[in-house]
Write a structure and sequence with these properties.
60s Ribosomal Protein L30, Chain: A, five-stranded mixed sheet, 2 helices, 127 residues, alpha+beta
Length: 127
């Protein structure tokens, strides 16, 4: 039977997916957008607030799996504007310890609910 990780400290899935699925020592976290887990509303239009909420959501899912953001081995960041790339670096630098995980950043034309950022993650469950 397939396992999954879920927490009410991160937004509930808004589609047909799980917040995260562990498999063979790795946790695959679905893309997180800047939704407040209590209200399921977008936190703000401000990009800094959006990226902070996305990282909070990812952190909550990591904690539910008894790991941390520092156990992430790869992030994929989706941005509607690559001009926000320096702010992604700034936010991650304040929340993560070195060595930093691998990362891909992709500019997309749109994201769910009109947000500016979405991030998914692959996490090592055997730190």
């Amino acid at each position: 039977m397939k396992e999954f990780i879920t927490t009410d400290q991160a937004p509930a899935a808004i589609g047909t997916y799980s917040q995260a699925v562990p498999h063979r020592g790795t946790l695959y976290i679905s893309g997180q957008i800047p939704l407040d887990p209590e209200t399921m509303e977008i936190v703000a239009d401000d990009f800094r607030q959006q990226i902070s909420q996305v990282l909070d959501n990812l952190d909550a899912i990591c904690r539910a799996a008894e790991v941390s953001l520092n156990d992430v081995i790869k992030f994929t960041v989706y941005l509607t504007e690559l001009d926000n790339f320096p702010l992604v670096n700034e936010a991650m630098q304040t929340r993560l310890s070195q060595p930093f995980p691998a990362r891909a950043v992709v500019e997309v034309s749109a994201l769910p609910k009109g947000v500016a950022v979405e991030i998914d993650a692959v996490v090592d469950l055997t730190p």
